[in-house]
Amino acid sequence: MPHRNLIVIGASAGGVEALAKVVSEFPKDLPAAVFVVLHINAQQRSYLPEILSRAGPLPTAHPRGGEAIEHGRIYIAPPDYHLLVDATTVRLTRGPTENRHRPAVDPLFRSAAYYHGQHAIGVILTGALDDGTAGLHMIKRCGGLAIVQDPLEAFAPGMPESARRNVQVDYCVPLAKIGEIIVSASRQTLPARNAGPCEASQKALINGELMGHEAMLETFGSPSAIVCPHCDGPIWEIADGKIVFYRCAEGHAYSPESLLAAEGETLERALWVAVRTLDERAALLRRLVKKTPSEGQNIIAASLRSKAEECEHSAASIRAILGKLGEAVIVESNKAEAGARIAVGSGRKVGA
After folding, report:
1. Is-catalytic flag, 39?
2. At what angle do helices 133-141 and 158-166 cross, to 10 degrees?
């Protein structure tokens, strides 16, 4: 009989400890395959397979692209690769970053929703911002089960709170209960259900296919006035019910919060380039002052010195702006975390 036999889990900040706790609850005979994305620096080696192998009884590893999916195994996304699934095999791609990450949670969840529908279980654990929300929405829409860690106890509440706020999740529970719920759900038989038709546009997005500029124009109409922070190409705003996300023709995709964060990084880089350019110009002007011929020293040197001082003053002003931007990020981050905790603590539905 059909049952939920594909488990996809996404996590970020604080995710190692959370994942270890969840997989410690899995039995040796778990009748499902488990896929995990943890945000990790592309240049770092991931020790997560070793950590989770010690935490629970299931064999855990970075998979090879094209290998068959087997029940009772945990597959970990390797650094700098998106981890995807199709009907029977594992896929690894170095496609465009999504939500500023590779691996990202949304691509895995989309592929699970498209190929496994009601047989998929999506789980969002601790993490900042909102990667995974759109993917969990897709799993839920395709008949799968949606589980989020209670944001009140999460190390970083952003990811689970965004998912809880935007998706009709089946369970919002403390970490200690998630493993038990997954195991129980994986053993329940499911009624036969025919998947509904999938629009061509949604099929391409769910399956992580690149569409190209002309296809994006034909499918989604005109792009927004925003450009991609990664490649400077036009970005389309795409709505799917309550879920809004952004995607450029090259395939870079962003949730609203990740787009704001990416644009903030772009702004900071541009301001630092301006500071460097002004500093270099001031230094050059002062060198020219020293090389000014003695007969024109008074007038020319004074002009060069004045221009150098203007550059130094402008650079100092931009540095002050950068300092205020940094302070604002810290304040907004603290407000967002406090707001999430207040919102979650005031009358939310929590699965048992």
Report:
1. yes
2. 40
131: annotated active-site residue: yes
What are 196's two structure tokens?
């509904």
pLDDT tens digits for 264-295?
888 899 999 999 999 999 999 999 988 877 65
The Cα–Cα gap between 37 and 7 comes to: 11
- Which of 12, 111, 255, 258 is the catalytic position? 12
* H-type alpha helices, 188-255: 200-206, 212-220
Residue of 106, 130, 131, 150 marked catalytic? 131
Q: What Cα–Cα distance (Å) separates residue 145 from each residue in 107, 148, 232, 343?
A: 17, 10, 37, 23
Residue type, 146: A
Q: Which CATH superfamily is domain 6-187 in?
A: Methylesterase CheB, C-terminal domain (3.40.50.180)
80 is catalytic: no
CB atoms within 10 A of CB 179: 18
pTM given for the model: 0.82
Q: Where are the beta strands (DSSP E) in 107-170?
A: 120-124, 145-149
For residue range 117-171, list pLDDT tens digits in order.
999 999 999 999 999 999 999 999 889 999 999 999 999 999 999 999 999 999 9
Domain ranges of the chain: 6-187, 210-253, 257-345
Nearest CA among 216, 206, 250, 256 for reference residue 236: 216
